[in-house]
Model the fold of this input.
Amino acid sequence: MNPLLSGPPAVVAAGVDVFSDALRAQGAEVHDVDWRPPGFGDAADLAALVLDPRRGTANRTAVERVLAAGSVLTDVRPAREVLGLTDRTILHAGPPITWADASGPLRGGLIGATLFEGWASTVAEAERLLAAGEIALDPCHHHSAVGPMAGVTSPSMWMWCLEDPVQGGKAYCNLNEGLGKVLRMGAFNDEVLTRLAWMREVLGPVLAAAVRSMSDPLDVKAVLAQMLQMGDEGHNRNRAGSLMALRELSPAVVEVDAASSDIAAVLRFIGGNEHFFLNLGMPTAKLAMDAARDVPGSTMVTVMARNGTEFGIQTAGTGDRWFTGPAQTPVGLYLGDYGPDDANPDIGDSAIMETYGVGGFSMAAAPAIVRFVGGTVPDALATTERMYQLTLAENPAMAIPILGFRGSPTGIDVVSVARTGWLPQINTGMAGRVAGTGQVGAGLVQPPRECFEQALTALAAEVR
Done:
């Protein structure tokens, strides 16, 4: 007889003591391993939330609101009209921040907006006004708005105006400038300011007239859902979505009473801007996540946003409170001669896409995204599979073909993040660290765990 098979069985036990105690009672040789899941946060806080009798019902309510939310395009108007912006107020991405703490790309965007609005005639004068606090700064999220990258939005910029026909919410986003040297990446040279002026004088008015003339409003949620069937993931790959938006808007655009040269310029601009749809997709996600706000007992994340210095989250159970930590620098692919030393830490409200369950959460729907942000196709598939472990539901409207049309992982759960130790995956653009640089690359990034640790503590305090 094999001596290894003689005598009492030897067992390696990992987990609660009751199992190893039972085996010992049966005469087994038991070797206990001190192992636990790689989670984080205070164990008492986690236990309080797990045992909270409200949590199951509250999360179901929050999920139902998110999944039910719709999104239709109703208008295009200047920010001062729809956001109530007073003169000398600029909105920005992420949680609240001051000029003193602002990163290079955010400073660049703020300088550019100050010049664009005519509040200053030189960069030095703009910097003086901003440093002195003579221009008010406020997060886009405080105004039912979102903005990609720096997210800088000033009163005369035109805004997409979207509504949720199911629950009545409203959300807004500025118009996408395209790629390269753009304000949202912190650039503010003459090329940027000239483009912004054209967007104010031509693009905005033409789009406003076109949208108002449409007999049926554009169903933006339907476009976002279709994008996932066509190889986009809705954050850094928007090719199909932008072309569908062009298809839907162009008949109304060509009928606008404007110079033919202006009509041609508008269509050429939209057709040449692969990220045109992003600024429609973001407020669509914002509508859905705002619908889940203020649900006592819910541990669902409703906002993930970054200002280039800090990363902040909000939850359904804690309303408008921000939980912040240091923004991380994305890892990915760089343009030209740029490298890691040129990249600023993570910035932008566009992580609202991942909060909604698309973008980095739905990378399996767009394996070609790895050519833009780095990684491999198996990485993209594995990322989506892992995000199901952090979320409360699957969104049947956002189906992922390669996964058998499984709904995208939706509704980040603070408890699941803390228990697993896994953090949400975001794919994003990278802005240059130095103000005025513009885009330097694109890559992958995660929130700092501090955000979730703080949220866990705050949610637990609501239970006690």
